[in-house]
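Next up, a specimen:

>
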Amino acid sequence: MFADKIRVLRKEKKLTQAEVAKEVDLSARGYQDLELGAKPRYDALLHIADFYDVSVDWLMGRTDNPHAHR
């Protein structure tokens, strides 16, 4: 679920994995691993949520509202 959401968000912004990785302070491989299903570290999760302007709860599938608890 998380992997699918960040992949869709990235593609909507027409960005490469490497471009997003740089913005969220991850290696290109680290971001690629997240899109392939790796579990994110908490700090990476926060950076990704901020970058895409969505809530952590939505990214992790705990709510259907992408802006809950922002």
User: Anything to note?
Assistant: The helical segments are 2-12, 17-23, 28-35, 42-52, 56-59. Residues 2-12 form the longest helix (11 residues). The domain at 2-59 is CATH 1.10.260.40 (434 Repressor (Amino-terminal Domain)).
